[in-house]
Amino acid sequence: MSNFPEILFAVLLSVTDGDTIKVRIPNIPTVFGEEIAVRIAGIDTPESNSKCAIERELAKKATEFTKNFLQNTTIIELQHPTRDMYFRVDADIIVEGKSLSKELLNAG
């Protein structure tokens, strides 16, 4: 399934880290899995498994920001979804008209 619609609605399952969440997308064949990893388009947060203590701390803050942004949210909007080289979905994540990527960038 390489041609996604411009907008998909998904059920938020969990936050993996600052730039990745897991969702279930209704009406997508289960061959893609029940839980689909979605990366926030245009965002690459620090890695929590880094050898650098500062990077791990920044990764923790990014993850907390994403969790707080998505708190009390069940249905999210995935705009302009595509597949990346790891078979994840890359998309702009929108909640109540707000872009998670823009909010992450604004927060630094």
Question: What descriptive keywords fit this protein?
Answer:
single chain; 108 residues
Characterization of this structure:
This protein is of the alpha+beta class. Helices cover 24% and strands 36% of the residues. The protein has 2 helices and 6 strands. A 5-stranded mixed beta barrel has the order 1-2-3-5-4. The longest helix has 18 residues, at 53-70.
Envelope shape: globular
Order of helices and strands: EEEHEEEH
Low-confidence stretches: none
Strand content: 35-45%
What's the end-to-end separation, in Å? Answer: 34 Å
Helix run count: 2
Give the arrangement of secondary structure elements.
Elements: E1 7-17, E2 20-24, E3 36-40, H1 53-70, E4 75-83, E5 89-95, E6 98-99, H2 100-107
Parallel strand pairs: 3-5
Antiparallel strand pairs: 1-2, 1-4, 2-3, 4-5, 5-6
Produce a short descriptive summary.
The protein is of the alpha+beta class and 108 residues long.
